[in-house]
Amino acid sequence: MSDSFVVASDLGTGGCKTVVVDERGMVVASAQSEYATAYPRPGWCEQNPQDWLDAVCATVRDVLAQTDLSPSHIAAFGLVGVTHNAVLLDAQGQPLRPTILIYDTRSQVECDEISARWGDEIFRRTRNSISPLWTWPQLLWLKRHEPQVWTATRAILFQKDYVRHCLAPSLVSDLIDVEGSLLFDPIVNEWIDDFVADLGLSVSVLPKVVKPIDVVGHIDARGAALTGLPVGTPVVAGTTDTVAEVFGAGALRPGQGTVKLASVGRIACVATGPSDHPTLLNYRHVVEGLWYPGTACKYATSTYRWLREVMWGEIPYQAMSAEAATIPPGCGGLLFHPHLQGEWVPYWDTRLRGDFVGMTMRHGRSHFTRAVMEGVAFALRAGIEYVQALGLPFDDVRLIGQGATSSLWAQIIADTLNRPILIPLERDAAYGAALITGMALGLFPTDADSIATLIQIQEQRDPDAACASLYDELFHIYQDADVALKSISHRLTDFEQKHARRLSGG
């Protein structure tokens, strides 16, 4: 058995996963915990930062109990998390309110105002374009609508940084995660004073920026009591969950791409620099000199979780998948559009709504379940085609995320894309977080070629020609239905917002 181990956690949009990885790069224990998301008003989407801390602590205690490691064998602890999720802290370091998530659309007016003031300067300085996804307009909304929170704010951290700060005090963030604020210049590695001043903020309120592999603190007495990690355990800065997934999946060279089947359907392609197209997302890679431009479908496995809650109850996801597997491809003409609260690629439309199209008396919940899987696959195909049309090459596709554990869903995606897909043995951000954490302590190498030797591909899924042909026909119907229903979605969204209080019973 190896002598040194790292413990690493991934804070996703729907839950936390923690792993223990040995010095050979092998996962020896893992644990997961979900947390709730609140939708207090139409277009709003929030989470409680305390739930993130509780989930990390619970899963760390779980994996430590599984492995019974001695304190001397734990080399370090690290976290990764979702970008854009700002936590506003008061003078005592306590969160002032729930955190606005990336799905939230309330700050569209603020986006329009910021864009009117700064125009092309935003993309030139940040390599990204403004939308409610980013922290800047979210903060402006809070300043305008919750002034009591704004005036009480003494520090702003991001999701993983807040949890790390609770365990090993350190008001820092890494140079990839801070890009999600739209207040940071990734070329010169500095906060953009003009943009920060636009909010009336001081840079001193924002975290100090470090590298993802920097050791930024050590577990203190409180952190040890909460997690079971030894006092003094080195804690690594970490980074965003997406780059950790890209890195951990072995997408380490230009042209290698990932499709993340998780709460968000994230599409990334490794490149030597940022894309010049303003509708793509641009972030730096962990590997020096590389980027991973791409895009995302707003909802992926989160639609599956939603369907379970409203239609299946407490049945395991595997049982849902088994039921869906009994339904032939195409679900008897039942289509699903996964735009449950707007959509990103390829529409960038906050007023789109999800729907099932083509229901008949013959359709049962198993049909609806498979239709959700197929609808997400169609959304991913639309995203990949969009990215390819803008010149990003996908030499290979690596399917990652929790949804990739479903054999049925993986095959649906291979058939929908009509190309082979590679499925890594470890396919989530927690593994990438562990590699990054180990690199900080010299447990793992830092060069791409050596890291690649640690990454194992579990299988390759090849498309079935007959299914691929069927899905190609259905995909075009899916796209036509999206176009045809756009105005209906907009009208329903406007109707809901107009009558929000009456419709909610308020």
Characterization of the model:
The structure is a single chain. The protein is of the alpha+beta class. It folds into two domains: 5-243, Nucleotidyltransferase, domain 5, CATH 3.30.420; 250-419 and 464-506, ATPase, nucleotide binding domain (Nucleotidyltransferase, domain 5, 2-Layer Sandwich), CATH 3.30.420. It is 39% helix and 20% strand. The chain is built from 17 helices and 22 strands. The strands form eight sheets. It has a six-stranded mixed β-sheet with strand order 3-2-1-5-14-13, sandwiched between helices. A four-stranded mixed β-sheet has the order 17-16-15-20, sandwiched between helices. It starts with a strand and ends with a helix.
Main β-sheet: number of strands, strand sense, barrel status?
Answer: 6 strands, mixed
Secondary structure tally: strands: 22
The fourth-level CATH homologous superfamily of the largest domain is ATPase, nucleotide binding domain
Beta-strand content bin = 15-25%
**What is the name of the CATH architecture of the largest domain?**
2-Layer Sandwich
Oligomer: single chain
Q: pLDDT average, as an integer?
A: 95
State the end-to-end CA separation: 60 Å
List segments where confidence is low: pLDDT < 50 over at least 5 consecutive residues. none
Basic shape: globular
| CATH domain class name of the largest domain | Alpha Beta
Helix-and-strand structural type: alpha+beta
Kindly report the CATH topology of the largest domain: Nucleotidyltransferase, domain 5
Total individual domains: 2
Strand order of the largest sheet: 3-2-1-5-14-13
Over the alpha carbons, how many angstroms does the gyration radius reach? 22 Å
Helix content: 25-40%
Count the DSSP helices.
17
